[in-house]
Amino acid sequence: MRGVFFPGPTYMRFHKVGVWNISVNELANTDIAAAKIMVFKNHCMTLFPGIGFCLLLVLGSSYISEHYGSSTILGALLLGMAFNSIYKYPEFTPGLEFCAKNVLRIGVALLGVRITFSQITELGIHPIISVLAAVIGTISFSVALGYFLKVSLIKSIISGAAVGICGVSAALAVAAVLPTSKSNERHLLCTVVGVAGVSTICMILYPGLLLSLNFSPEQMGIFLGSSIHDVAQVFGAGEMISPEVAQLATYTKMLRVALLVPAIMLFAYLFRGHAPEKSLINRILPWFLIAFIVLMLLANLGAMPSEAVTFCGDFSKLCLWIAMAALGAKTNLLELWQVGKKPFVLLLANTILIAGVSFFLVF
Question: What does pTM read for this prediction?
Answer without folding.
Answer: 0.60
